[in-house]
Amino acid sequence: MAHYQSFEDLEIWKKSREICNDVYDLYLISDLQKDYGLWNQLNRSTGSVMDNIAEGFDRDGNKEFIQFLSIAKASCGESKSQLYRCLDRKYVDQNKFLDIASKMENCKAQTAGSMKYLKKSDRKGKKYDI
């Protein structure tokens, strides 16, 4: 992982933003609009992925970043579970489900990879660079 200047430069943040947009597009074209509880939960959990990546990055320390990446990874799992409910309730077809679910799995794997990298890194974060 290079020394990025902003969370917007992180590939995992970009991927999580794409997932949020995919989920919103699903909302716009389906009856998910009528299921406020599920929509609200899905919207919040996918947003939590990108928000925790951003917040962890801006904490400027590897330990804190790892903690927030762990939360983001868990939120991605939560989002995938909610996506299954969308499939079961026929708000999403099988192909779209597989597309979004695959992106969620890739995001989880990249997040786990970033956590592993940070744990091994000698660099402890920007706040320790004096």
Helical segment count: 4
CATH class: Mainly Alpha
Structural class: mainly alpha
The main sheet comes to: none
Give a quick summary of the entry.
By secondary structure, the chain is an all-alpha fold. It is built from four helices and no strands. It has a single domain (9-119), classed as Up-down Bundle (de novo design (two linked rop proteins)).
Can you characterise this structure?
This protein is mainly α and 130 residues long. It has one domain: de novo design (two linked rop proteins). Helix content is 74%, strand content 0%. It is built from four helices and no strands. The chain has helices at 11-29, 36-58, 62-88, 94-120. α1 (11-29) runs antiparallel to α2 (36-58) and α3 (62-88) packs antiparallel against α4. The longest helix has 27 residues, at 62-88. It is elongated. The two termini are 20 Å apart. The mean pLDDT is 93.
Task: Outline the fold blueprint.
Elements: H1 11-29, H2 36-58, H3 62-88, H4 94-120
